[in-house]
Amino acid sequence: MKRFILIAAAVGMIGLGTWLAGTNAFKFLTGYMTVDKVSSEPAPVKQEEAPPVEVRETKTVVYDDRPEEGEIIGDLIIPKLDAKLPIFHGTDEDELEKGVGHYAGSVLPGEKDNSVLSGHRDTVFRRLGEVGKGDTLIVTTAKGEFTYKIRKVRIVDADDRTVIVPKPRATLTVTTCYPFRYIGDAPERYILVGDLIDSKKYKE
């Protein structure tokens, strides 16, 4: 009888232990799954409205229409040389024989970006070597008077295309063949690069 009581007690203890273990395991698994679900689905973050984007003008348009090839568009004034030279739209030989040529692929004087002027070293620009950093160049057109201050003098190879690359601000690039006394086709170019420092636009 005593043995039967001990066996029954042992079986009861085993059953109770099994029930407790199963209950804890269930709670543990339930909690684990809940935590995993929460961590995999984070609470939504409140979206704040983005501030309005400021749109900046990339180009300054001064002229209503582009000039025709060969048309005179203004004058280049070089105070250092006391010179006033006519500017023609285009850089073919026809334009360069008459004065300074404006590279048609560049913006017009006074506009934001790179306005490129060219001339022969043995005619209009024979004394351009006397002009350098700190000097001014003035371009007058039907739209206004635009003053540039030279910030850089460059001497580059004749096939250097960096002369005509776009610029982030209103720039005047003046180019001629170099050396000035070279006989034949000169191998280099003398470059003046100026920034627009004053703009006087004429009233319509």
UniProtKB/TrEMBL annotation:
Recorded hits in InterPro entries, A to Z, give: Sortase (IPR005754), Sortase_D (IPR053525), Sortase_D_1 (IPR041999), Sortase_dom-sf (IPR023365)
Region forming the signal peptide? none
UniProt superkingdom: Bacteria
Q: Read off the Gene3D superfamilies from this record.
A: Sortase
Q: Where is the active site?
A: 120, 177
Q: Keywords assigned by UniProt?
A: Hydrolase
What GO molecular function terms would the record report? hydrolase activity
- What is the designated name of this protein? Class D sortase
Q: What is the lineage of its organism?
A: Bacteria, Bacillati, Bacillota, Bacilli, Bacillales
